[in-house]
Amino acid sequence: MPPDLRLGYLVFDARRPARWASFCQHMLGLPAPVDNADGSRGWRLDEAAQRLIVQEGPADDLAALGLECADEAVLERLLARLRQGGVAVEAADAALRGARRVQRLHRCTDPAGNTVELFTGLAPAAQPFASEAFPEGFRTGELGLGHAVLVSHDLAATEAFYAGLLGFGVTERLATRVGPIDIRGVFLHCNRRHHSIALFDMPLSKRIHHFMLQARRFSDIGIAFERAQRHKVPLSLELGQHPDPDGTFSFYGATPSGFDFEIGAGTQTIDPDGWQTQHTGVTSAWGHKPKLRLQLKMAAGLIARKVSGAPRRAKELA
User: Fold this and answer.
1) What is the H or E stretch that residue 172 is in?
2) What is the rounded CA–CA span in Å between residue 101 and residue 309?
3) Which of 60, 194, 223, 245 is most buried, judging by how many CB atoms fall within 10 Å of its CB?
4) Side by side, which strands form the sheet with 61-69?
């Protein structure tokens, strides 16, 4: 059974927060952000107070991911499992809880170095969500805000954290090759969403590969694709569709921090109860043609990995 979790929010460090403000307004079409006491700003996707949080920082990368627990009992159970597994967990102070707009918050670090925040009681927004760019909004609720794909160079250790300690289920395992690059990945579910978190071993320096927002209306994806071109947002993958059992129709582009965003629709849900892990060697049923920007980025990462002599620790998982 799933662990009664959902991806609640994502926190990003950004060297140029003003560019994120423009991106969230013009590309994502989100309402005006809330200003938090710690200087961060939070953007809404639904009736929650904030889902995408941007704070000024040098990394231009993922700063934290928030996992919303269904209730206090779930939070306590997960905290106990983490501590029994030797993971240090600390309770957040009132200032951080206020900035995240939650009632309870505990923090730990996964094996890839990502800050994971387990929380309950995300505050509601002061007014209903409305977006001209996405008139029917995004599919969130019990499925969470969407998904995040994290970069890990030790898939076994990172999977052991999310699946072994936090109780995520393994939806699919990926083993493929893109040009000279071997890519291994694992898609993890914690509710009926196909994956809330995925782990990819790729030659990239950032902690996050991309985050995905799921629109409720298919036509909004084509409109967003044209909007990206109009605003000269660098694209990574053109329009395409992931194969079943995911099925998402989407495209990918670059955020102001350099990692990617995905906007999609039509994502299928799964039944976590008794789900049997699937294996795949393809990431797209059609489309998702890579742009030159992405090809150069991957090539540069591969060269950097070879020059550094960093060992490939990740092995295909059975």
Assistant:
1) strand 169-178
2) 43
3) 194
4) 34-35, 41-43, 52-56, 5-14, 61-69, 115-120, 104-109, 90-91
Burial class (CB in 10 A: 0-12, 13-18, 19+), 54: buried
Q: How far apart are CA 280 and CA 126, in angstroms?
A: 43
Angle at 317 between CA 313 and CA 318, to 5 degrees: 150
- Distances in Å between the Cα of 314 and the Cα atoms of 109, 212, 311 are 19, 24, 9
Q: CA 175, CA 198: separation in Å to the nearest integer?
A: 13
pLDDT at 318 over 60: no
Which pair of structure tokens corresponds to residue 94? Answer: 């009132």
Which residues face 69 on adjacent strands? 5
> Quick count: other Cβ atoms within 10 Å of Cβ 2?
20
Distance CA 264, CA 241 (A): 9
Phi, psi of 83 (to 5 degrees): -65, -40
Tens of pLDDT, residues 40-71:
999 999 999 999 999 999 999 999 999 999 99
Dist. CA 209–CA 48, nearest whole Å: 25
Please indicate, yes or no, whether the overall pTM of this predicted structure exceeds 0.90.
yes
What is the pLDDT averaged over residues 152-174?
97
Read off the amino acid at residue 21.
Answer: A
Strands 260-265 and 278-280: unpaired
Cα dihedral sign for 286, 216, 190, 59? positive
For residues 210 and 189, give the distance between their C-alpha atoms in angstroms, rounded to a whole number: 17
Work out the average pLDDT over 70-96. 97
Q: Tens digit of pLDDT for each residue in 223-281? A: 999 999 999 999 999 999 999 999 999 999 999 999 999 999 999 999 999 899 999 99
User: Residues 101, 49: contact at Cβ < 8 Å?
Assistant: yes
The helix/strand/coil state of 173 is strand
